[in-house]
Amino acid sequence: LSACFLDSMATLGLAAYGYGIRYEYGIFNQKIRDGWQVEEADDWLRHGNPWEKARPEYMLPVHFYGRVEHSAAGAKWIDTQVVLALPYDTPVPGYMNNTVNTMRLWSARAPNDFNLRDFNVGDYIQAVLDRNLAENISRVLYPNDNFFEGKELRLKQEYFVVAATLQDIIRRFKASKFGSTDTVRTVFDSFPDQVAIQLNDTHPAMAIPELMRIFVDIEKLPWDKAWDLTKRTFAYTNHTVLPEALERWPVDLVEKLLPRHLQIIYEINQRHLDHIASLFPNDVDRLRRMSLIEEGGTKRINMAHLCIVGSHAVNGVAKIHSEIVKTQVFEDFAELEPEKFQNKTNGITPRRWLLLCNPGLAELIAEKIGEDYVRDLSQLTKLHEFVEDDLFIREVAKVKQENKVKFALYLEKEYKVKINPSSMFDVHVKRIHEYKRQLMNCLHIITMYNRIRRDPTKLFVPRTVIIGGKAAPGYHMAKMIIKLINAVAQVVNNDPVVGSKLKVIFLENYRVSLAEKVIPATDLSEQISTAGTEASGTGNMKFMLNGALTIGTMDGANVEMAEEAGEENLFIFGMRVEDVTELDRKGYHAHLYYDRLPELKQAVDQIRSGFFSPKEPNLFNDVINMLFHHDRFKVFADYEAYVKCQEKVSELYLNSKAWTKMVIRNIAAAGKFSSDRTIKEYARDIWHVEPSDLKIPAPNEPREGAQDKTPNGMAA
């Protein structure tokens, strides 16, 4: 999503920067050994990175620990440990407009006097070795998806990127001459008009108290002035509603690491609660719900509450998600300031996710409607004129078939697995998580397997089911799900009765570069999360743009995809958000579905009895126990509707022409899901900057009127 946004911001000519951490080790490489996930370090910089340029001249200090001294002059944070932030710049070129923006990633460096300046007993060697402690901050990316782990190193990473970035932004603000006669700016009144900072989830939430610290402690602004500037500068994007994913940092950890920031957070909270109390006298429960500090057990800071209070705009990432954010997760805050809450439906860049990964389809589209759609994806609606064009239908089907053959060859070469390119490619690729319900797909695979064995002569539409994704290393259930999929694949792929009718592949080490290969080759896209759990999803959009049909629930952006293409052009099934809420009210009883549905019972019994793990019959006990007794995501409740919907998928696939016409209708409706549209909405509604379609002259061309990309000179 961030990469798509950077591409769109550059393509729209916005003066925008992406800031983050230059991790030495990215998300782990996944190996499958004996059906289990094994993690390996991703040493991605081993051979160097030609796209980055270190900028030591912009190195900045970041402070940790220490204590706060109060005096008449104000608060002072002293006796801190210093880590240096070394920026590395990566160019972000816009599409054919000669604009190049910057992504600046910070790397942690120990200062040269690290551990040597303080009353050291002269262990010089140990002091140099201890430099690693400081430099560990940018060593490794935490691999959790939708899960909060309150580790000190992670909080250090979050403050590190925030502190370095804010210093950088303020340095640039002070140096800019725009609207100022001073050589160096000291007046911050225009700061929110020149600077917009978008908080990507709560991970950079410490930016709010950090900017307050700079304004109040360093620049000596009065609190109310500083708070007004801060709120007008920040906006917050929420990316998940799962409670286990929300960041809630222990107060004692923040007090140790960032003592001044804790004081500032307490002050923000006090003023916030005073305001609530003035509006709702005697409503103590509302004060408890809305506080930035959660009492009870260990005191924690609710970072989402901090972001909402400290921002002028809050948005979800799909209509249904933004509705849930407003009416459920943060309802008290939305009641207070409804105008603060917005929606910005996610998008994908058509440059990477069509032109680059699927040149055959991109060219075919260009032949029909011209090349302008690459920068204005809404033009894809013109393809509706060709839905009945027999030649175009055949060409679209041909491009898909070529992509499937190419992917089948890749699988054969890299993984030594042979698949039938004329089978339906049924693809479920995303992070492994209970809410994404890879288990439901697994139950469907077992059901198809049982049907083939029950009547091997009956017509069966051949399928290759491809499942891929990484499990967080500490997520036991997700790792068991991977093992189960591989165990089922082992049985299915080696049963002579099944033959080539059904194949199951677990795609190892799913990542962007592999997505670029598998997505253009996909027939059926699986988007089957429990309604109300997937904030948006973007894979769903990538598949739609690349000529796959979607089987999915009314969740995340699937809802808007169905709205754009017509619900009859997606395979929508299962509970809606209202049904899930109602089932929660009544109580979800898994055994009722198990007792009522013979095919579900058979599949579950096979997993339980060790049919797929004969050497270890009890291997999947934890999975079975979860499904019956604590399945928050209600796999059994949607199983029947899912299987019936899959029958409709197979039926349509038999009619190649009807299938391809539905594909064309989907591609024609995919225009809304360009990240260009998303970024235009952020720019208009939140950042208040104007996109520019000016093509900056190339370095070898004369320059005339294209001096200022953004007329009002504001940087996002």
Automatic annotation (TrEMBL):
Belongs to the glycogen phosphorylase family. This is Alpha-1,4 glucan phosphorylase. It catalyses: [(1->4)-alpha-D-glucosyl](n) + phosphate = [(1->4)-alpha-D-glucosyl](n-1) + alpha-D-glucose 1-phosphate. SUPFAM superfamilies: UDP-Glycosyltransferase/glycogen phosphorylase. The keyword Phosphoprotein applies. Allosteric enzyme that catalyzes the rate-limiting step in glycogen catabolism, the phosphorolytic cleavage of glycogen to produce glucose-1-phosphate, and plays a central role in maintaining cellular and organismal glucose homeostasis. One of its GO terms (biological process) is glycogen catabolic process. One of its GO terms (molecular function) is glycogen phosphorylase activity. Homodimer; enzymatically active. Interacts with PPP1R3B; recruits the phosphatase PP1 which dephosphorylates and inactivates PYGL/glycogen phosphorylase. Its cofactor is pyridoxal 5'-phosphate. Residues 693-716 are annotated as: Disordered. Keywords: Allosteric enzyme, Carbohydrate metabolism, Glycogen metabolism, Glycosyltransferase, Phosphoprotein, Pyridoxal phosphate, Transferase. GO terms for cellular component: cytoplasm. Its EC number is 2.4.1.1. It comes from Xiphorhynchus elegans. The keyword Ligase does not apply. The modification N6-(pyridoxal phosphate)lysine is found at K542.
